[in-house]
């Protein structure tokens, strides 16, 4: 953390120029941040949103008023930071550290009213922890990045709780018991007021297809969500609790703005349909907990339709549980390499895959994998192609779609 703190000090502490919501967790962080940011924008605030990783372009990580930072502005901000903190080059900061400092500086220069910040990894040693939150939040904690965060939920949750600040309110999603115990213990040590999903707030579906929220801050009926999947109900509940906590800390939000934010939020790469004929869906599930909620959503949205998987995974992920949950449900599985040095070659795990699904093909490229899955889907009525297993894969599929659309427009 020393380099990030030194850089921010050299910049005159831009992180102190605006209040922030700081969100950690294993799954659901991005969607929760998207819900909150959109609701704050609907309330009339100039909002800075910092998330990671990006899917297609790094500019996606830094947004103001819902717009990615422009290339020219991004370059200008980088030069401004380097001019004020040349040590970023002589004592190189990590990619994420430097990006975080640039984002916090940009939000200050853009005079945002409030910032919404997503941690990159963990919390205690994450660069975003140098920010100035007035509310913190932890979404569901599960097993991921265990080589850095620990091998038990208690240890991982303790790292996530590193974003807590003395006396700053925290919102917690529903958690596994040992994770919740660890989070609550850290909150008690820091005299942190805590709101826990299921105990202090929650959201339930109504008979008319809308949702109803009940919490200490407010009660809302007739809530609809722009983001698909039953798991978004939890993210929406946590977002509404965060908005209520922000309101208590002086950030004005009306019930109408909260409803509008949840009904219009966008978050690419989560159950996103990117092509038709056949339907191609991308989802960023990349750990066992993420796959579990993905399966629940698939059962809700595509029940009974043949599923053709395009699957790619990085070598340091716990692929076994993901494969065991997904592959037996698939009519075909198409394994693809990823465009990252961390990619696990399909040949390395094709034998594992063939135990779980009768039709498994290893491909040399994503284009080949997509072509194979789409051909299989076209041959079966109502077939659905699902690309999942890694956010690297989601970004690559979205780039492929953009290229395909561009080629189609040129032909027309």
Automatic annotation (TrEMBL):
The keyword DNA-binding does not apply. It holds the Pfam family Mur_ligase_C. Its EC number is 6.3.2.12, 6.3.2.17. It comes from the Bacteria. Its cofactor is Mg(2+). Residues 269-390 form the Mur ligase C-terminal domain. This is Dihydrofolate synthase/folylpolyglutamate synthase. Keywords: ATP-binding, Folate biosynthesis, Ligase, Magnesium, Metal-binding, Nucleotide-binding. One of its GO terms (biological process) is tetrahydrofolate biosynthetic process. InterPro entries: Folylpolyglutamate_synth, Mur-like_cat_sf, Mur_ligase_C, Mur_ligase_C_dom_sf, Mur_ligase_cen. It is an enzyme of class 6 (ligase). Functions in two distinct reactions of the de novo folate biosynthetic pathway. Catalyzes the addition of a glutamate residue to dihydropteroate (7,8-dihydropteroate or H2Pte) to form dihydrofolate (7,8-dihydrofolate monoglutamate or H2Pte-Glu). Also catalyzes successive additions of L-glutamate to tetrahydrofolate or 10-formyltetrahydrofolate or 5,10-methylenetetrahydrofolate, leading to folylpolyglutamate derivatives. One of its GO terms (molecular function) is dihydrofolate synthase activity. NCBIfam families: folC. The keyword Nucleotide-binding applies. Belongs to the folylpolyglutamate synthase family. It catalyses: (6R)-5,10-methylenetetrahydrofolyl-(gamma-L-Glu)(n) + L-glutamate + ATP = (6R)-5,10-methylenetetrahydrofolyl-(gamma-L-Glu)(n+1) + ADP + phosphate + H(+); (6S)-5,6,7,8-tetrahydrofolyl-(gamma-L-Glu)(n) + L-glutamate + ATP = (6S)-5,6,7,8-tetrahydrofolyl-(gamma-L-Glu)(n+1) + ADP + phosphate + H(+); 7,8-dihydropteroate + L-glutamate + ATP = 7,8-dihydrofolate + ADP + phosphate + H(+); 10-formyltetrahydrofolyl-(gamma-L-Glu)(n) + L-glutamate + ATP = 10-formyltetrahydrofolyl-(gamma-L-Glu)(n+1) + ADP + phosphate + H(+). One of its GO terms (cellular component) is cytoplasm. PANTHER family: DIHYDROFOLATE SYNTHETASE-RELATED, FOLYLPOLYGLUTAMATE SYNTHASE-RELATED.
């Amino acid at each position: 953390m020393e380099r990030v703190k030194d850089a921010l000090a050299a910049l005159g502490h831009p992180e102190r120029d605006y209040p922030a919501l700081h969100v950690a967790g294993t799954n659901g962080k991005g969607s929760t941040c998207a819900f909150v940011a959109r609701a704050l924008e609907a309330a009339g605030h100039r909002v800075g949103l910092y998330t990671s990783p990006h899917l297609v372009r790094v500019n996606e990580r830094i947004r103001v008023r819902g717009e990615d930072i422009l290339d020219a502005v991004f370059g200008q901000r980088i030069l401004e930071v380097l001019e004020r903190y040349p040590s970023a080059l002589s004592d190189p900061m990590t990619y994420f550290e430097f990006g975080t400092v640039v984002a916090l500086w940009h939000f200050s220069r853009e005079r945002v009213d409030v910032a919404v910040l997503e941690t990159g990894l963990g919390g205690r040693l994450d660069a975003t922890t140098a920010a100035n939150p007035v509310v913190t939040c932890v979404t569901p904690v599960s097993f991921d990045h265990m080589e850095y965060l620990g091998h038990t939920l208690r240890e991982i949750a303790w790292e996530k709780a590193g974003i807590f600040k003395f006396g700053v309110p925290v919102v917690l999603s529903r958690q596994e018991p040992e994770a919740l115990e660890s989070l609550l213990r850290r909150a008690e040590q820091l005299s942190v007021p805590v709101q826990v999903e299921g105990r202090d707030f929650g959201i339930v579906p109504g008979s008319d297809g809308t949702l109803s929220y009940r919490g200490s801050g407010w009660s809302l009926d007739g809530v609809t969500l722009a983001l698909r999947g039953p798991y978004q109900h939890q993210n929406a509940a946590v977002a509404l609790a965060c908005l209520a906590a922000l309101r208590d800390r002086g950030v004005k939000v009306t019930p109408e703005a909260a409803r509008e934010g949840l009904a219009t939020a966008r978050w690419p790469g989560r159950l996103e349909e990117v092509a038709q004929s056949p339907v191609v869906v991308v989802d960023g599930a990349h750990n066992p907990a993420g796959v579990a909620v993905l399966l629940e959503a698939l059962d809700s949205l595509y029940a009974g339709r043949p599923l053709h998987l395009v699957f790619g995974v990085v070598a340091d992920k716990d692929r076994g549980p993901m494969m065991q949950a997904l592959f037996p449900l698939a009519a075909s599985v198409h394994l693809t390499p990823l465009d990252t040095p961390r990619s696990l070659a399909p040949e390395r795990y094709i034998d594992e895959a063939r135990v779980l699904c009768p039709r498994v093909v290893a491909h040399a490229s994503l284009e080949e994998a997509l072509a194979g899955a789409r051909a299989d889907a076209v041959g079966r009525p109502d077939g659905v192609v699902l690309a999942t297993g890694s956010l690297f894969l989601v970004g690559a599929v979205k780039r492929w779609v953009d290229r395909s659309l561009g080629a189609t427009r040129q032909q027309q």
